[in-house]
């Protein structure tokens, strides 16, 4: 499975704003595409 992340989610993840441990682990371990929009 590949995730499609928008730039707001990536920004929140990089700034430490995502507090959901399962979601953060998923972003770290799965290959993901980032939407440029």
Query: Between the first and last Cα atoms, what is the distance in angstroms?
Result: 21 Å
List unreliable stretches of 5+ residues.
none
- Output mean pLDDT: 87
Radius of gyration: 9 Å
Give the overall form: flat
Structural class: alpha+beta
Strand order of the largest sheet: 1-2
Strand % is 15-25%
Can you give the helix content as a percent range?
A: 40-55%
User: What letter string, H or E per element, gives the SSE order?
Assistant: EHHE
Describe the biggest sheet?
Answer: 2 strands, parallel
Tell me the count of domains.
1
Write a concise synopsis of the structure shown.
The chain is α+β, with helices and mostly antiparallel strands and 37 residues long.
């Amino acid at each position: 499975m590949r995730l499609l992340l928008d730039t707001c989610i990536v920004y929140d993840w990089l700034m430490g704003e995502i507090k959901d441990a399962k979601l953060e682990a998923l972003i770290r371990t799965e290959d993901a595409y980032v939407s440029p929009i």
